[in-house]
Design goal:
Length: 209
């Protein structure tokens, strides 16, 4: 499901708090923890060393890679896909219905199979800030950062820091998550790690190391 992230943690058995609601049809990897009042629905697949915080929701068939973190009350509706190392902040929401209605034109209550669900895809290492809303269908690029409270209605490039309503790119960030510093000839440097990046056509790529 993307790049494999190194892990310094020793895998431990899965931990599910008694108040959590985890379907018997869900698959949880070694070392994954599901905390109080969280819900993991049927067919969901979570990798190793994931954390599902208090009151968080993981929808039917959602796929999560290794070392993902869903903070308290994050809502991840199907058919979302989270690659390895994704962070979803407290009370963030991933939608799955472009044109939501409770009833159809005849006034009948709509059921789950009355619309085609669309999902949010979050690539390796990306982070979604607290109370951000990602309106499906969108893709959040590798190592991107969505600022708290933002509303994402368009795809986010790799390494982009986006903010606002609607969210727009305001900076570039590196793998460490801090804003990059501009250098000559379209190069960017991470002040924390020293890694360098190259910008071309409004896209950022790692420079050959």
């Amino acid at each position: 499901m993307g790049e494999v992230l190194p892990s310094e943690r020793t895998l431990v058995p899965t931990r599910i708090e008694p108040s959590a609601d985890v379907s018997a049809d869900a698959s949880l990897g070694d070392g994954t923890s599901v905390w109080h009042l969280a819900q993991v629905r049927e067919g969901a697949v979570l990798g190793t060393n994931c954390i599902v915080g208090r009151g968080a929701y993981v929808g039917t068939g959602v796929r999560m890679g290794d070392s993902c973190k869903l903070q308290n009350y994050a809502l991840v509706y199907e058919p979302a896909v989270l690659e390895d190392g994704v962070f979803v902040g407290p009370a963030a929401v991933f939608t799955n219905d472009q044109y939501p209605r409770s009833i159809d034109p005849d006034g009948r209550l709509k059921r789950g199979d009355d619309w085609e669900a669309v999902g949010v895809t979050v690539r390796t290492g990306a982070s979604i800030g607290a109370r951000a809303v990602c309106v499906a269908p969108v893709t959040i690029g590798r190592w991107a950062l969505v600022a708290a409270g933002s509303v994402v209605i368009a795809d986010v490039p790799d390494f982009a820091l986006v903010a606002g309503v609607p969210a727009r790119r305001i900076r570039w960030v590196g793998r460490a998550g801090v804003p990059l510093e501009a250098g000559p000839d379209g190069t960017w440097t991470c002040p924390r790690t020293g890694e360098t990046y190259i910008e071309e056509d409004d896209r950022l790529m790692e420079a050959a190391q």
